[in-house]
Every structure is written in structure tokens, then in C-alpha cells.
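Propose amino acids for all 252 sites.
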């Protein structure tokens, strides 16, 4: 059944008028007709089984039949902090980590970040990333949107780390003593993981020292040098597999 994101739906509604991009997609791209069923996601964790009543040029009216039971809550909250990287790679990263279930995304820029966003461009970038997040949620049947924070300098991002019941980790290609596998196997699962992935140019020694002083575990993913977006996806996948909901057992 097709899924659409309509953030202004409420559980008390029995009918809903869909406008904007979602209405155009239903009408012009999918050419859906009266009587066809669809699922409405509200972006806050709720989903509703609905039936199309009327399709017009700019609007689609649906009957909201019932609220669907929510999936079980994941046992872990993942906050991913990716450095700003080149546009197409950043778009891909945000799309895929949304599909993998991160709860919040905290972009940052650091000393070796290749991409430097002007303040006038940040709003446009944020709007684009939010649309990518929405599209990814529709695709993977995710009813709750992850939060997206405004890009911050590395030092401020580190300072905003939650203090309690949080595993704080940072990937560094020059780390040669501790890897992610060792930390996850030797640590009892915590309810929150705050994970940092650096830019194409890596971190400076002073940034690594600041992270250590702030309570971060500096970790490796192995001997391969991975692209920033590959490292982020690998990191989230491994955490979800070991501690999270990347398994059938959590959803049965």
C-alpha cells in the first residue's frame, strides 16, 4: 500500500484534504483514483489507513478509516553527527541513515571540512535535507521523522553531547587500538548512542584531544579507509544490529 506524509493529520479526523507535493504526486505521477487505499504517515510516529474519496487538480480528499498499531519502540536512540561533506554524498548519507533508523542528525563543520556553508545557504540546504528525510520515511514506512539540527562548529557540537546514559563515540582513521566491535561487545547496551563521523579530510589532533577530554571513545572501523558516507552507514548499521532493531525479533 502506498505511503504519504501529511504532518497536519490528527487521530480525531475522519476525513483529510491533502494538498501540495503529496497531492500532485498522488494525482499526476501515480494517477491514483477514487476507492484506492493508502497509508498516511504524520511524521510523529502515527500512521493511518485511508481511502481516496476524491481527486482534483490540486487536492486529494481521503477518508481516514483507522489508526494503525505502532511498531515496537527501538531499544536504542541514535544521534548521528556527520561532518558536512560534498552535496551529493551528504544527501545520500541523510537518506540512508534515515532509512536505518537514526533519531536525530547533527551536522557539523570542522577545521578540515571541505564544504563551507555560507549562512545564507544554510536554510536552503536544511530545506533540501528535510525533503530527503521525508521521502526516505515514506519509502521505508517510518512514521516518525528524525530531527535535523542546524550545522554547528565541531566544538559546539561536542559540547552539546548528553552526559548521562550515553555512549559517545567518534570514528578516526588513525586509531589503532580500539575498534567499534570491541566497544559494543564489552559495554552493556545504553539507551543512547551519540556518534561522530568526520569529513573527507579527517580530524586534527586537537579535535581528537577535545573529543577524548569530553568523554568520547575514539574508535576505528578497521584497516580500510572508508569514504565519510560509507563510514556513517556502516557505523549506524553495526549499532542497530548489535544494540538496536535491525532484526526480526524486535518487531514480532
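Proposal:
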Amino acid at each position: 500500500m502506498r505511503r504519504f506524509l501529511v504532518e497536519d493529520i490528527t487521530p480525531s479526523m475522519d476525513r483529510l484534504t491533502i494538498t501540495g507535493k503529496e497531492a500532485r504526486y498522488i494525482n499526476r505521477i501515480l494517477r491514483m483514483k477514487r476507492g484506492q487505499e493508502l497509508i498516511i504517515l504524520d511524521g510523529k510516529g502515527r500512521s493511518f489507513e485511508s481511502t481516496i474519496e476524491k481527486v482534483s487538480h490540486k487536492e486529494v480528499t481521503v477518508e481516514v478509516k483507522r489508526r494503525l498499531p505502532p511498531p515496537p519502540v527501538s531499544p536504542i536512540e541514535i544521534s548521528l553527527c556527520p561532518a558536512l561533506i560534498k552535496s551529493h554524498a551528504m544527501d545520500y548519507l541523510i537518506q540512508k541513515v534515515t532509512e536505518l533508523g537514526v533519531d536525530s542528525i547533527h551536522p557539523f563543520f570542522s577545521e578540515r571540512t571541505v564544504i563551507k556553508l555560507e549562512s545564507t545557504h544554510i536554510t536552503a540546504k536544511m530545506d533540501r535535507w528535510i525533503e530527503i528525510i521525508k521521502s526516505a520515511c515514506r519509502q521505508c514506512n517510518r512514521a516518525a521523522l528524525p530531527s535535523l539540527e542546524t550545522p554547528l562548529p565541531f566544538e559546539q557540537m561536542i559540547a552539546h553531547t548528553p552526559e548521562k546514559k550515553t555512549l559517545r563515540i567518534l570514528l578516526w582513521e588513525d586509531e589503532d587500538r580500539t575498534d567499534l566491535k570491541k566497544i559494543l561487545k564489552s559495554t552493556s547496551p545504553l539507551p543512547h548512542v551519540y556518534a561522530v563521523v568526520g569529513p573527507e579530510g579527517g580530524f586534527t589532533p586537537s579535535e581528537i584531544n577535545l573529543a577524548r577530554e569530553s568523554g568520547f571513545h575514539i574508535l576505528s572501523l578497521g584497516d580500510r579507509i572508508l569514504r565519510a558516507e560509507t563510514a556513517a552507514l556502516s557505523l549506524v548499521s553495526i549499532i542497530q544490529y548489535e544494540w538496536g532493531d535491525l532484526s526480526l525479533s524486535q518487531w514480532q
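The chain has a mean pLDDT of 92. The helical segments are 20-29, 87-100, 119-139, 154-159, 180-186, 205-213, 228-243.
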